[in-house]
Amino acid sequence: MEVNKLKEVKLFLGPQHPGMHGNYSVHMYVDGDIIKKARPMPGMLHRGFEKLMERKLWMSNMAIIPRICVIEPDINEMVYAMGVEALAGVEVPEKATWIRMMILEMARVATHLFALGGIGGPTGLYTSMYWAVAERDLILDLFEKLTGARVYHIFIVPGGVRKDLPEGFKTQLGTYLESLEKKLPEYQELLLKHPIIHTRSKDNILLPAEVVHELGVTGIGMRSATGKAYDLRKVKPYAFYDQVEFEVPTATYSDALTRIHLKFQEIQQSIRILKQIIEKMPDEGPVKAPIGTGNALKLRVPAGMVYTAVESTRGEYGYFIVSNGKEKPYRIAVRGASYPQGLLGIERYLPGHRIDDAPLWMDTMGVCSPEIDR
Amino acid sequence: MKQEKSMLSPLKAWKYLVKEPVTVSKKDIFVKPREAADRYRGFHVNEHDKCTGCGTCSEICPTDAINMIVLPDQPFVDGKKNERPAFDYGRCSFCGLCVDICTGDSLHMTKEYVHITPDVNQMYFMPDELGIHQKKFENGWLRDEVSELLDLERYEMKHEGVSRKSSFIEIVKGFSYEMALAESSRCVECGVCTQTCPAQMNIPEYIRTVYDGDLKKGIEWIYKTNPLANVCGRICTHKCESACVISNRGDAVAIRWLKRYIVDNTPMDQYEAGALAYVTEKTNGKVAIVGSGPSGLSCAYYLSTLGYEVDVYEKNALPGGVIRYGGPEYRLPEESVKKDILMIENAGVNFICNTELGKDISLETLEEKYDSVFLGIGFSYSRPLPIPGSDNHEVKFAIEFLGQARDYNRGLRAIPDISDEVIVIGGGNVAFDVARTLIRLQEEKYGKSSVAMAALEHREILPADLEEIEEGEEEGLKYSFGYGPQAIKVEDGIIKGLHVKKVLSIFDGEGRFNPSYDEEDQKIIPAKQVYIAIGQMANFDFFNEEMKNNIEFFRGKVKVNDNGQFDHYPWLFAGGDIVRGPDIINGVATGHDAAKAIDAYIRSK
Amino acid sequence: MMNSMNNLKEQLKAHYKIAAFEEPTKMQLAFNVEPDKTLDVLAYLKSIGYGQLSLLTCIDWIEIEEFQLVYILFNWDNGIHLLVRTSIDRNNPKFRTIEHIYPGVKYYERDVHEFFGVEFEGNEDSYKHLFLELWEADCPLKKDFDPLEFSTNRYGNRKYETNFPRKVGGE
Question: Are B197 and B585 in contact (CB under 8 A)?
Answer without folding.
Answer: yes
